[in-house]
Amino acid sequence: MNIVPVDTKLDLVLKRELAVPVSLVWRGLTEPELLKQWFCPKPWGLSDCRLDLRPGGEFYTVMQDPEGKQYPNTGCFLEVIREKRLAWTSTLIANYRPAPPVKEDDKECAHLAMTAIVSIESIPVGTAYTAHVMHGTPEQTKAHEEMGFYDGWGTTITQLEELLKQ
User: Fold this and answer.
1) What share of the chain in percent tops pLDDT 70?
2) What's the CATH number for 11-165?
3) Is the pTM of this model over 0.85?
């Protein structure tokens, strides 16, 4: 279910059916200790995570590569509807403040301005999961896709499903 029309030049969409109930998927999306276990494709991981689950709340993660180098990411939640939808953006930080400009030497993905809408709904086999990631330019969309959007986000949602089945 998309709440915003998909623009094929600006958006990337990943849909999956997960064999776990919506209530567990919601926990996996919103509890920092669970998020740390699946949010990055292994062997990468999250060394820190702060989620202030309210519109205007902070969405903060620190990705860590296998060598231990850390990559902080800040964002802002735009919408939080329990067990239905999460929307956040990298273009704002907490309390809807504009994100500081990226520096030239920042990691590649820091240069991607994006808004993500993750929708979940109950289906007979478990949960229908849709990630709709919007960008401001076709170049940003292409860069995100070439970075491995489908493989990366697909791998992580599989990791979430496997974690929640335990």
Assistant:
1) 93
2) 3.30.530.20
3) yes
